[in-house]
Amino acid sequence: MSDLSQKEMQESGRLKIEWARNYMPVLNQIRADFEKEKPLAGRRIAMALHVEAKTAVLVETLAAGGAEVAITGCNPLSTQDDVAAALNTSENIKCYAKYDCTNEEYYEAIDKVLDIDPDITIDDGADLIFKIHKERRDLIPKIIGGCEETTTGIHRLIGMEKDGALEMAVLAVNDAKTKFLFDNRYGTGQSAWDGIMRTTNLLVAGKTVVVGGYGWCGRGVAMRADGLGAEVVVTEIDPVRALEARMDGYRVMPMEKAAEIGDLFVTTTGNRDILTENHFKKMKSGAILANAGHFNVEIDLESLKKMASSEKTVRRNIKEYVVDGKKINVLADGRLVNLAAGDGHPAEVMDMSFANQALGVKYIAENKLAHGVHKVPEEIDNYVALLKLKSMGIEIDTLTEKQRNYMDDWEEGT
Ligand SMILES: NC(=O)c1ccc[n+]([C@@H]2O[C@H](COP(=O)([O-])OP(=O)(O)OC[C@H]3O[C@@H](n4cnc5c(N)ncnc54)[C@H](O)[C@@H]3O)[C@@H](O)[C@H]2O)c1
Ligand SMILES: N[C@@H](CCSC[C@H]1O[C@@H](n2cnc3c(=O)[nH]cnc32)[C@H](O)[C@@H]1O)C(=O)O
């Protein structure tokens, strides 16, 4: 990509954005409404999201609503530089993201985004909010609210709220039904496999796939592995989820045991140390490890590096570590395999996630929210679902008055 001229980069990014936009009907409807109503006129929005085509469609929707937007990445390996270049040609949008940036560059870009002096933030992992609370506290009085895209980000913000440390309102976008039921499950289910398959060019059928965590992402990853012909093993720490995995037809066991039989491991927990030294020692030669959860600590790379007698890149986005003469392959440096080694979720699911973001930002702009973590209002969730159904040409029934009364009536029996 770096061999392309700036103009070619912009054109390549623009084509990607147009392609994604064609499959994001809900966000397109919201954009049309925003263009007419300008609900974000005069607003300054700071964003840290994966900078790729679908995110660009969201950014342009917010700008169409009248906002000035500054954006950077939320993962050093998920930025697509051509999309970033295209965004920088749009009016009222400034993009600071860069693929494969150093830690220093990553946080410098976060600072640049915050220099817009935001009244609204949009995060994926709460990087902006943490920076604001720790180092840019002068910004706090002007901020009217923020949106958080992902499960782990919300867990941490709730932690901050409990400690009395959260000094702004945040909308928990991940927890909207039209987000996590589709994005985390069907999105991660498809895009993690897309990333793994395009990176390895190997067959999934006949392999033993170990999925770490059976939350919404884990369910999607397990379901699609099953569909591709793998034998699926799930590891969990939550007894109810472990039971669900078993009843959904998968084998359940501790990672200690799964490590011995897995060909391919996918972590989806949002936690750390899911695959560690003990497990690496037990793995078969040729084992492939990928992370589709949160940061690059689900796979304990530090230990793996220490244990390995050698380490080399054997294919783009695959690092082979030799441990006791066995080859252990890690995809995308343990970062999100769907974004760092793929193009992220399909446009149709990001359509709903980002519709919640756009309407969430409008909601923050129009309501004075108290400090703390707030739910996305049910009306927004249902509106997104209805628009999506409409775009798919699907109609549903509505309750009659008689049915409504019957459901609530405690006096009606058999
Ligand atoms: N790759 C992506 O594009 C993508 C998309 C959505 C969410 N996420 C991220 O993926 C992670 C999971 O999200 P989710 O919505 O599925 O969350 P979730 O809370 O529904 O699921 C996480 C599961 O992991 C389990 N778990 C925790 N520690 C474990 C351990 N040590 N061993 C085994 N299981 C363990 C939990 O019990 C839970 O069932 C989060 O970090 C989220 O931010 C990634
Ligand atoms: N910033 C952290 C957090 C995990 S990202 C997980 C989030 O990424 C979002 N996501 C997945 N695919 C895409 C995409 O293609 N574009 C933008 N966001 C995406 C998805 O909504 C999910 O909640 C990290 O990079 O490690």
Automatic annotation (TrEMBL):
<keyword id="KW-0378">Hydrolase</keyword>
<keyword id="KW-0520">NAD</keyword>
<dbReference type="GO" id="GO:0006730">
    <property type="term" value="P:one-carbon metabolic process"/>
</dbReference>
<feature type="binding site">
    <location>
        <begin position="150"/>
        <end position="152"/>
    </location>
    <ligand>
        <name>NAD(+)</name>
    </ligand>
</feature>
<feature type="binding site">
    <location>
        <position position="149"/>
    </location>
    <ligand>
        <name>substrate</name>
    </ligand>
</feature>
<dbReference type="GO" id="GO:0005829">
    <property type="term" value="C:cytosol"/>
</dbReference>
<dbReference type="GO" id="GO:0004013">
    <property type="term" value="F:adenosylhomocysteinase activity"/>
</dbReference>
<feature type="binding site">
    <location>
        <position position="179"/>
    </location>
    <ligand>
        <name>substrate</name>
    </ligand>
</feature>
<comment type="similarity">
    <text>Belongs to the adenosylhomocysteinase family.</text>
</comment>
<dbReference type="GO" id="GO:0033353">
    <property type="term" value="P:S-adenosylmethionine cycle"/>
</dbReference>
<comment type="function">
    <text>Catalyzes the hydrolysis of S-inosyl-L-homocysteine (SIH) to L-homocysteine (Hcy) and inosine. Likely functions in a S-adenosyl-L-methionine (SAM) recycling pathway from S-adenosyl-L-homocysteine (SAH) produced from SAM-dependent methylation reactions. Can also catalyze the reverse reaction in vitro, i.e. the synthesis of SIH from Hcy and inosine.</text>
</comment>
<feature type="binding site">
    <location>
        <position position="236"/>
    </location>
    <ligand>
        <name>NAD(+)</name>
    </ligand>
</feature>
<feature type="binding site">
    <location>
        <begin position="215"/>
        <end position="220"/>
    </location>
    <ligand>
        <name>NAD(+)</name>
    </ligand>
</feature>
<dbReference type="GO" id="GO:0006556">
    <property type="term" value="P:S-adenosylmethionine biosynthetic process"/>
</dbReference>
<keyword id="KW-0963">Cytoplasm</keyword>
<feature type="binding site">
    <location>
        <position position="345"/>
    </location>
    <ligand>
        <name>NAD(+)</name>
    </ligand>
</feature>
<dbReference type="GO" id="GO:0016802">
    <property type="term" value="F:trialkylsulfonium hydrolase activity"/>
</dbReference>
<dbReference type="InterPro" id="IPR015878">
    <property type="entry name" value="Ado_hCys_hydrolase_NAD-bd"/>
</dbReference>
<feature type="binding site">
    <location>
        <position position="271"/>
    </location>
    <ligand>
        <name>NAD(+)</name>
    </ligand>
</feature>
<dbReference type="InterPro" id="IPR036291">
    <property type="entry name" value="NAD(P)-bd_dom_sf"/>
</dbReference>
<dbReference type="Pfam" id="PF05221">
    <property type="entry name" value="AdoHcyase"/>
</dbReference>
<dbReference type="InterPro" id="IPR042172">
    <property type="entry name" value="Adenosylhomocyst_ase-like_sf"/>
</dbReference>
<dbReference type="InterPro" id="IPR000043">
    <property type="entry name" value="Adenosylhomocysteinase-like"/>
</dbReference>
<dbReference type="InterPro" id="IPR020082">
    <property type="entry name" value="S-Ado-L-homoCys_hydrolase_CS"/>
</dbReference>
<keyword id="KW-0554">One-carbon metabolism</keyword>
<dbReference type="Pfam" id="PF00670">
    <property type="entry name" value="AdoHcyase_NAD"/>
</dbReference>
<feature type="domain" description="S-adenosyl-L-homocysteine hydrolase NAD binding">
    <location>
        <begin position="184"/>
        <end position="344"/>
    </location>
</feature>
<feature type="binding site">
    <location>
        <position position="124"/>
    </location>
    <ligand>
        <name>substrate</name>
    </ligand>
</feature>
<feature type="binding site">
    <location>
        <begin position="213"/>
        <end position="218"/>
    </location>
    <ligand>
        <name>NAD(+)</name>
    </ligand>
</feature>
<protein>
    <recommendedName>
        <fullName>S-inosyl-L-homocysteine hydrolase</fullName>
        <ecNumber>3.13.1.9</ecNumber>
    </recommendedName>
</protein>
<feature type="binding site">
    <location>
        <position position="338"/>
    </location>
    <ligand>
        <name>NAD(+)</name>
    </ligand>
</feature>
<comment type="pathway">
    <text>Amino-acid biosynthesis; S-adenosyl-L-methionine biosynthesis.</text>
</comment>
<feature type="binding site">
    <location>
        <position position="184"/>
    </location>
    <ligand>
        <name>NAD(+)</name>
    </ligand>
</feature>
<feature type="binding site">
    <location>
        <begin position="292"/>
        <end position="294"/>
    </location>
    <ligand>
        <name>NAD(+)</name>
    </ligand>
</feature>
<feature type="binding site">
    <location>
        <position position="183"/>
    </location>
    <ligand>
        <name>substrate</name>
    </ligand>
</feature>
